[in-house]
Amino acid sequence: MLFLNERTTGLDLQSGRDLWRIITEFIIVLLVSRYLFGVVNHGRYLSVMLLIALGAFEFAGIGLLIASRAKTLEALSGLMNLAMVPMWIGSGIFLLLETLSGICAAAD
Fold first, then answer.
1. In this structure, is the dihedral angle defined by the CA atoms of residues 84, 90, 91 and 92, taken in order, positive or negative?
2. In this predicted model, what pLDDT tens digit does every residue of 17-61 receive, in sequence order?
3. Sign of the CA dihedral 36, 37, 42, 43?
4. Rg (CA), the chain
5. How far apart (Å, rounded) are the C-alpha atoms in residues 58 and 64?
6. How far, in Å, CA of 29 to CA of 49, rounded?
């Protein structure tokens, strides 16, 4: 587990290099959502960027909370699956919620 002992540099927002990288990633997310998925923004783009940043911090926080509890890589893998599988099922990514509700109704 050599990677656990490596130091990270973190973000250097004062130099501007990391700040431009973050802004570029926001723009890429907005462009892909607009032209690939047809998402139209009726509000301010600054608000959308703030929501993207908050979502990124939320998922990073979930990852840190789970990683702080695991002692081994195998335990980490199991805990991550325990957190992600309900999100996948509940969000309708793999199963449409209409189909899932029909399956649950048929089981009764």
1. positive
2. 777 888 888 889 889 989 998 988 888 888 888 888 898 888 888
3. negative
4. 19
5. 10
6. 9
